[in-house]
Amino acid sequence: MKHIQLIILIALSFKLSAQTNDSIFIRSIYNEALSNGQSYEDLRHLCKDVGARLSGSAEAQMAVEWSERTMQKYGFDKVYLQEIKVPHWERGTKESGWIRTKKEGLIKVHMLALGGSIGTEGIMEGDIVEFKHLDELKKAKRSQVEGKIVFINQPMDQQQINTFKAYGGCYAIRGNGAVEGAKLGAKAVIIRSIGMPIDQHPHTGSMHYEDSIERIPAAAISTEDAEKLSQLLKNGKAEFVMEMDCRVYPDATSYNVIAELTGENANEIITFGGHLDSWDTGEGAHDDGAGVVHCLEALRILNVLKYKPKNTLRVVFFMNEENGNMGGKSYATWSKEKGEKQIAALESDRGGFAPRGFNCDGSNDFVSLIQTFAPQFKQYDLHEFEKGYGGVDITPLKEAFPGIPLFGFVPDSQRYFDFHHAPSDVFESVNKRELELGCAAIASMVYLLDKNL
Amino acid sequence: MKHIQLIILIALSFKLSAQTNDSIFIRSIYNEALSNGQSYEDLRHLCKDVGARLSGSAEAQMAVEWSERTMQKYGFDKVYLQEIKVPHWERGTKESGWIRTKKEGLIKVHMLALGGSIGTEGIMEGDIVEFKHLDELKKAKRSQVEGKIVFINQPMDQQQINTFKAYGGCYAIRGNGAVEGAKLGAKAVIIRSIGMPIDQHPHTGSMHYEDSIERIPAAAISTEDAEKLSQLLKNGKAEFVMEMDCRVYPDATSYNVIAELTGENANEIITFGGHLDSWDTGEGAHDDGAGVVHCLEALRILNVLKYKPKNTLRVVFFMNEENGNMGGKSYATWSKEKGEKQIAALESDRGGFAPRGFNCDGSNDFVSLIQTFAPQFKQYDLHEFEKGYGGVDITPLKEAFPGIPLFGFVPDSQRYFDFHHAPSDVFESVNKRELELGCAAIASMVYLLDKNL
Question: What residue of B is the nearest CA neighbor of A156?
Answer without folding.
Answer: B35
